[in-house]
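Is guanosine-5'-triphosphate placement plausible here? Inputs below.
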Amino acid sequence: MKKQYGCDYTIAFAGNPNVGKTSIFNNLTGMHQHTGNWPGKTVSNAYGKCSYNDKDFLLVDLPGTYSLMSNSSEEEIARDYICFGNPDLCVVVVDATCLERNLNLVFQILEMTPNVIVCVNLLDEAKKKSIEINLELLSELLGVPVVGTIANKSKTLKKLLEVIYSTLENHNNIQSVPSKLKYSPDVEECISMIEEDVKSKLPSEKQYLSRWISLKLLDENISINEALKSSLHIDLENDSDIQEKLNQIKADLSNESSSITSIRDSIVSSIISEAEKIREKTCIFANSKYNLKSRKIDKILTSKKFGIPIMIAFLAVIFWITIAGANYPSSLLSNMFGTIQDKLLIIFHNLNIPEFWTNLLIYGMYQTVTWVIAVMLPPMAIFFPLFTLLEDLGYLPRIAFNLDNYFKKACSTGKQALTMCMGFGCNAAGVIRL
Ligand SMILES: Nc1nc2c(ncn2[C@@H]2O[C@H](COP(=O)(O)OP(=O)(O)OP(=O)(O)O)[C@@H](O)[C@H]2O)c(=O)[nH]1
Ligand SMILES: [Mg+2]
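Reply from A.M.:
I modeled the complex. Tokens:
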């Protein structure tokens, strides 16, 4: 049965930022969505098609998110698509070089859908860092298929498609039983108090979500109510049964001198400790000192004391190179356009073109356009390659990290710092030179 856009199956690609989701998506679909070495490039869902054997797949590239708590619009977009967009399968792309951190999102997605494949990408980078991952054991521990990939190696992507295909086609005989994280007895008790009520409100095809929704309600995640209202037309916020149970849980917790905050902390610590256990079992660090140097540099670049001054110095140097370096090509361009303008004026004069047209075309249009080109093009041609260099050095995520706190105060995130730097670098350089 053909479904969305005439495809047999819909497959969502989720994962942390910068793990290669879009690179895999582009290679499978032949599309050219934006990729780059800094987080937060994909901000909305992108759709593409690809075929394998006799089946057509609709691939959906979701924005990268560290969690699905819906603290940002990207998280909401990804969460809503996984929960309510009805994908047949969710491929969670993880970074082989930092599996433990990525497992946080894997556990969250396993709570939301049973149809999951984990794609361990960046295996080449892991190899460079002497990290080996036991993919079979990882699959066993997570209870879902696991595939290792390198985004630009089509052989590994073919293997991914093969696993996607066989998982979907053998769906009824599927052996995989996704492991659900066991939280502390307190949290499990709270979940059990509310889960059956939540389940009874959900349509049969969404019953799987009951545990996850219960967790979100315990976590006082307001946006889940909004999402349920708009996607499933279920209003749990004004549901007396659910609210009664939640109040009862809160009362019980306060009787035990506990609180929702401690439940939240307990959920987070269960996720962290389970991720650590799985990493210990599945990852072998052949060289434990492999990133000692980079960690030392990282500590300095993101430290409270030196992080911001180094960042300002770095950006100031780039800014200075852009402005000072642009002077020479700019005056060359300006002279060239000036010479052409003189020639054009002579031609217009010889052709007896009225003064109105000479003013409009040469002093108006030509002079304005060439002036803007002479002033703006050189700084852009210098600034963007320099910014690309920073990107390749991996410094951009550090800038995002350093500025995250400040941007949060303006209800934004550190990732926005990069767009702001780009806009500021280029435009300010041009404006100063004007
Ligand atoms: N060495 C190596 N680099 C990779 C691999 N996959 C992706 N990359 C690089 O990693 C960077 C991030 O890739 P993207 O595809 O943009 O990552 P993303 O997960 O879509 O990122 P967001 O959209 O920001 O969440 C790019 O510079 C890619 O070229 C891989 O398997 N090996
Ligand atoms: Mg992307």
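Short version: Residues 21-22, 41-42, 61, 64 surround magnesium ion (ligand 2) (CB under 6 Å).
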